[in-house]
Design brief:
16-stranded mixed sheet; mainly beta; 35 strands; 6 helices
Length: about 400
């Protein structure tokens, strides 16, 4: 977890009602070749792919933690029909009633998907808008094929025959239970507590567990406490809360043990891309297994300047700070500049540029100018490694 700011995207969605299983079974995938290679871009810790609907190009997120989603704009452009409405929850426990529809056809390179169940979601919030995501290829759509993924090589392949993907040399196997929307759920154990982790390629972090699965007073491990908002979900953020980062002796996922991982707390139990990018992996919904072959052995690190910020109404606002570490910034400070680069008078394009290409990303010290209760304050901060 080598993050300078610790603000994570989590495009996780789950259907609150259990009545939608039949809806998510619908559809088919047609391949021209035994194995289809798909144009994948792994950017900002998220896998993005180009799709075509009615001959028009769109960008979709490849997200096992959600069902297939289309934006309100796509829904209107295609003049689709509402099948029903149902509550949908996100990673921050926000719930909204959304329209469910059937997407008649979508082309992904040489793969044609037909009659896929989809949820219609507003994707015009600042983070989604900056990433230019028009929809999500979700678990219900993925489950029609077998997938091989390697983020390091921007590799995404699909087949209808698992024999096309040799699993020889894949030293780790996760068995999972699929939700009705087909999202994989992994039985896990952290600090002697059993829990289910969602296998979530829409989560930019590594391992996240719900607050009720961790007690900072147990004294078993050293931890770092933060306060504020550490992640952004599909329907926005949750309320500011205390959260913790710790390094357990081991993390057990299904029957596999992993050492030296850093775990964070939040509102959901998730396994995400910061962990998965160390592997080439195959997702097998036929046998409910994920096969992993390690391609990187990079120790998990927790690095930060001690705060995180978001762009709210085109202003950079501090939304999270580390506790007990003499961090001078406070929640709701407005950041006017970092290293002399002004965050004032931003428009949508420039705020997106600074959101996706952080000024402080590749440096070890920064100067920060903030506005707090009408006063202008200047600070110099050094990047610090925690839990080392």
């Amino acid at each position: 977890m080598n993050k300078s700011l610790l603000l994570f995207f989590i495009f996780y969605l789950t259907i609150v009602s259990a009545q939608g299983k039949r809806f998510f079974e619908s559809g088919d995938a047609i391949l021209k070749n035994p194995v289809e290679k798909i144009n994948l871009t792994f950017a900002n810790e998220l896998p993005l792919i180009k799709v075509s609907i009615n001959g028009k190009p769109y960008q979709f997120l490849f997200d096992t933690g959600a069902p297939t989603v289309i934006s309100n704009a796509v829904y209107s452009e295609l003049n689709l029909k509402e099948k029903h409405k149902r509550k949908v929850g996100d990673s921050q426990k926000n719930k909204q009633k959304q329209v469910f529809t059937i997407l008649p056809e979508m082309t992904v390179d040489q793969i044609v998907f037909k009659n896929i169940g989809a949820v219609v979601v507003d994707l015009e919030g600042h983070e989604f808008g900056c990433l230019k995501i028009d929809g999500i290829i979700g678990a219900n759509q993925m489950a029609k094929l077998f997938w091989r993924i390697n983020y390091s090589e921007n590799l995404l392949e699909a087949t209808k025959d698992l024999k096309q993907f040799s699993t020889e040399g894949y030293e780790t196997i996760f068995s999972f239970k699929p939700k009705p929307q087909k999202t994989p759920i992994l039985e896990s154990q952290i600090l002697d507590k059993k829990m289910n982790l969602t296998f979530d390629t829409g989560f930019t972090g590594s391992i996240k567990i719900a607050e009720n699965n961790y007690d900072p007073k147990n004294g078993k491990v050293k931890f770092v406490e933060t306060y504020g908002v550490n992640s952004v979900g599909a329907f926005g953020t949750g309320k500011p809360v205390s959260s913790y980062h710790f390094r357990p002796d081991e993390v057990i996922v299904t029957t596999q043990k992993f050492e030296n991982e850093i775990v964070m707390t939040g509102s959901s139990n998730l396994l995400g891309n910061e962990f998965l990018k160390k592997f080439q992996f195959i997702i097998d919904w036929g046998n409910n297994k994920v096969y992993l072959h390690r391609i990187k052995s990079v120790p998990a690190k927790l690095e930060s300047f001690g705060f995180a910020y978001r762009f709210i109404d085109l202003k950079a606002k501090v939304v999270l700070v580390f506790q007990g570490n003499d961090v001078p910034l406070k929640i709701d400070d407005e950041i006017l500049s970092i290293n002399g680069i002004s965050f004032e008078n931003l428009n949508q394009e420039s705020s997106c540029q600074y959101l996706l290409n952080r000024v402080e990303k590749s440096t070890n010290s920064i100067t920060v100018k903030v506005k707090r209760e009408g006063r202008i304050l200047d600070f110099m901060l050094a990047k610090k490694e925690y839990l080392n």
